[in-house]
Amino acid sequence: MARLNYHHLYYFWRVALTGNLTQAARELHISQSALSAQIKQLEHNMNVTLFERAGRTLVLNDTGRRVLAYADDIYSTGEELESFLKKGIFTQTQHLSIGVLTTLSRNFVESFISPLLANPKVSFSLTTKGMSDLLVGLSNHELDLVLTNRPVSAEGQNTQWQTSLVSRQPLAIVGPKTKKKIDAFPEGYEKARWVLPGKSTEIRNAFNLLCAQWQYQPDIQAEADDMAMLRLLARDSGAFAVLPPVVVKDEIDQGLLVVYQELPNAYENFYAITAQRKFMPDSLVELLQKTEPVQKTS
Fold first, then answer.
1. Burial 138-177 (b: 16+ CB within 10 A, else e)
2. Least crowded by CB within 10 Å, which of 68, 102, 234, 274?
3. pTM exceeds 0.70
4. Using CA of residue 53, residue 59, residue 62, residue 67, what is the dihedral sign?
5. What pLDDT is stored for residue 221 in this prediction?
6. Which has the closest alpha carbon to 97: 87, 107, 85?
7. What's residue 294's pLDDT?
8. Which pLDDT belongs to residue 210?
9. Where do the domains of the chain lie, and which CATH numbers do they carry?
């Protein structure tokens, strides 16, 4: 069998990831015919067939899927090496690229990165995106770390992730300081209006469970998935809100809001997700060294 041509393999990898020869050719800045010829040459040299056609789309067959798994390892490691050469021990200052889930509390993020602000040998960038885009950034080594309030799921299909629980914040009922003192839920909340996280969130599920336990029907004034918006609604609406107090820490410190009571055995978890890699910047290791890995997925 002929020796493997890694140039041909790279072209196969890019086409396999996009599933579209035209798009891959555009991204690689070569003609579609030249790209097709490179892949056919790979198949000929290795005496295999890697794709089947479904209309205008190229679909990997069983052999192609196995080859893609190897190509993922080869080129992901190569991108990791490139990242190391750019960010590693050859520079005086290490740079961390941190991805943040769009709905995450900014107060939590600020608290988490505070050790970096005190380290003159570390610079960092923050990028806010949805979960799928963040995991793609980790896979491509564009991001070193992702901060989120939900653990990684089956969204990471080909890459192993390391998920660390970095903070666990109790959930609480928060409201304006002008409200009268309330002893225990649901007493005192009979005419209350509420601003709540969206129906699909863990926070909302915890509050719904409390309401069901006491057969309480909340009068919902507004809902928001974004913690920054929920923070503003809690501050300006005059209604009660359910969230981790860290989200409205500044408003509590200023006396604009107060914590009326914590929800029993209810928490919001904050996670740091990294890709399994051979090299991890020292500054990232130091940032995570006090956290405990809670799960791996692949």
1. bbebebbbbbbbbebeeebeebebbbbebbebebbbbbbe
2. 102
3. no
4. positive
5. 95
6. 87
7. 44
8. 92
9. 6-85 (1.10.10.10), 90-166+270-297 (3.40.190.10), 168-269 (3.40.190.10)
